[in-house]
Amino acid sequence: MGDTRTWDQVGRLVQWLDKNAEPASQADVTLLRVLKIGEEYGEVAEALHGAMGANPRKGRSHSWNDVQTELADVIVTSMVALATVAPDADRVLQERLEALVTRVTPGQAD
């Protein structure tokens, strides 16, 4: 369905986390991996403020490349969380993406 290499890499991250994180129940692991998305979002917000110079006290403290990198971190972190809760994360993501595209582009062929 999706990009196998990408999901293989996500799987490697999940395995590394499973092996190296502090011991925790599966419920706590799931909770922490989902909460990590919020932490990464905060880093995007900080980078965006910095790239736009929105904080007069800090000025332009980040670049647009920083924003892009932080957005990619949100995506990867979300994929790790999805892979943690869904045995077939690729299928879940592809089905959801198709549903969203169909909803906003009704009647349009691929």
Q: Provide the domain count.
A: 1
Low-confidence stretches: none
| Biggest pleated-sheet summary | none
Radius of gyration, taken over Cα atoms and rounded to an integer in Å:
17 Å
* Cα separation of the termini: 15 Å
Describe the structure.
- By secondary structure, the chain is an all-alpha fold.
- It has one domain.
- It is built from four helices and no strands.
- It has helices at residues 4-20, 26-52, 64-85, 89-104.
- The two termini are 15 Å apart.
- The relative contact order is 0.14.
- The model has no long low-confidence stretch (mean pLDDT 94).
What are its keywords?
mainly alpha; single chain; 110 residues
Short account of what is shown:
By secondary structure, the protein is an all-alpha fold.
